[in-house]
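Why does residue order matter? Because the sequence determines the fold. Keep that principle in mind as you read this record.
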Amino acid sequence: MTVKLDDRPIEKVREETVDKLIYNYSHGVISNAAFERRLDIVMEAKTHEEIIDQVADLNMEVDNDFVQSKSYRFGTQYTADQEESQDETILAIMGGNERSGSWIVPKKINVATIMGGAELDFTDAIFKHKDVKISVFCLMGGVELKVPTSVNVITRTLCIMGGVENKVASTVDKHAPTITIDGFVGMGGLEVKVKKPKKDAFIKFAQELKNTGLFSSKN
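Structure:
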């Protein structure tokens, strides 16, 4: 039995609709202007119906080749380098410290913020280990983690007169890397949130598929 549209998670419906738009655009079914216009509506839509309406006239469904290409483009990056990496320490004392870009994630990261802030962005990070430990000491400061949808996150911190917010599922994929955060948060805050691809990333990916002719050659 098919689940009613309104009973499905809206973000899942949005993701599937974006995939279908990209796939049809890469096949030349819709123009660039139509693709970007519909993508704008899908990204901003608040209802299931408004989202699904943007692909109501598109009959082509995504295939395994597309799924693999998308996974490679937006999924977690790994390195085959087996050399043991050193633990990394990030300090922010009355200031800020940011780790982002295409960086290799060590097995353990120590983060200490005292009246300061630290940001760890794992969006383009390269993982060497399936299990990554982050030890946090946050006193009158803040720690923010941004992770892609393909990473699991578990928080096990002691919080006193502060706040811990984890917006990431701890069981996204049993094969995906898992980040476990422990430590202490006092009169400060720890926030973990998903950093989803933006519109520009989807447009770039769609254009790459169309230019390579990978899918259009199947017509």
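The mean pLDDT is 89.
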